[in-house]
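input
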Amino acid sequence: MIRLLARWLVTSVLLLFVVSALTFVLTAIAPGDAARVILGMNGTQEQYEALRLQLGLDDPLPVRYWEWLSGVLRGDLGVSIYSQQSVAEIIGSRLGTTFSLVFGGLLFSAVIGIALGIASARGRGPLSRATDVISLVGASIPNFWLGFILVSLFAVTLPWLPATGYVDLATSPAEWARSLVLPVVTLGVGGVAIIAKQTRDAMSKQLGLDYVNAMRAQGLSERSIVFRHVLKNAAIPITTVLGLMFTGLFSGTVLVENVFALPGLGGLVVQATTTHDIPIVQGVALVFAFFVVVTNLAVDLIYGLLNPRARIS
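output
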């Protein structure tokens, strides 16, 4: 366990450093200029040069990155170039929305996908082929297109759910849930397809092993065999897919939050990229990368719980 944590810590620090450095360089060299955005079309050349000097945009890239990195090491993510607000406060105000969306999408994908996979593995035949079709269709549908279809159907034609907007959980739990239904389904449909196929394949492999036949010969019920033994032994590849999906859902929020006008980190990073607000982009990238490394640790720990032989002392 100590070796696992030490290895995780070293790789996490390296990953966060590489992600932050690449994000900073790519954002800095991208077309656009924060000073031009702030001044608009009516700013003079003198005002433009003075503002660039004030914001430190004339400093070399290594100097600007070091200033940002030293601030992060002190727990300071800096301030937004455009609004002059604290980056940590801006991200904190939007983190709950993105978390609600990501966890909702993961839960939706896991519950529906695992249920379909188990049913397919036990049923075989047409149900197994149906799972393949669902996987292919689900993985092929673009998120933004599915979002527009769901809005047209369930918010316009059948006005059951809100088309856009977000209600905080503390304000109204019921309205919070209603505001997330369409975004969560949009974000999670692709995951349902992937998890269903992975669960079906892992379960089918386990159901063909000798220990399953031995338990059936001993008179154990099919339900007990499937849910207490087979599903547990098939859980490691399913856990791998869930871990990868959780980190992938963060990138999926960029499109979904913009389609449904949700005040989350995905919409924030799009806006910050448009205005060339490097501290905001850096902060969001760092937060996303942090959750990636935490998820990797969680998956490794779950491996150890599911299979003691996989533990690292």
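quick obs: The chain has a mean pLDDT of 84.
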